Amino acid sequence: MSTIRQDAWTEEEDLLLAETVLRHIREGSTQLASFEEVGKKLSRTSAACGFRWNSLVRKQYESAIILAKQQRKAMNKQRKSEQKKVNNHEDHASPHRLVSTREAQPITLSSIISYLESVQDSDLQGQQLKSENDVLKRQLVDLEQEHQRLQKQYKQLQADYSSIEKEYQTLLSFMDKARQLSGISWGEQSILKVTRDQSDGS
């Protein structure tokens, strides 16, 4: 079994994803089928391809998607027209020819088994997609909780910083007052010393 990749997408992979999805749209296929095709080519899960398409790549190809849908509509119209011609032709065909046409494509046991296996594969793929979707949802919830935790931590750090800033400003204010008081006291001591010296000299 090949290893499922989880590394970053390249521009070439995005282009392959877009081309494949657009081709499936034109051909009237489903996007799920296109995601599975790309997933096999790139060794990624179809859920990862679907997430990449819907979250990022799709926005870059809006006009191309509209064009692909128009082409699909034109192709369907052409097919219906051709089928109508075939049906009209078969209506005028002989009963013998109708019987031989049915007998040319008999329903066999192997065709029934093949059909049932394809249905089973579809169920398994659906279960796998559901499981991958559940994992992605859980991861999203975890990321949201982590985001909230970091926000609270950031707000607490802001509050702590604000408190420290106020304390620092208060300390600076005290230091300025202390310097002022110290200057006045020194001046007073100088005046008293000069006065004493003068008294002693006289």
UniProtKB/TrEMBL annotation:
Residues 79-94 have a biased composition (Basic and acidic residues). Residues 72-98 are annotated as: Disordered. The keyword Coiled coil applies. Keywords: Coiled coil. Residues 1-61 form the HTH myb-type domain. Residues 126-167 form a coiled coil. SUPFAM superfamilies: Homeodomain-like (SSF46689). NCBIfam families: DNA_bind_RsfA (TIGR02894). This is Transcriptional regulator.
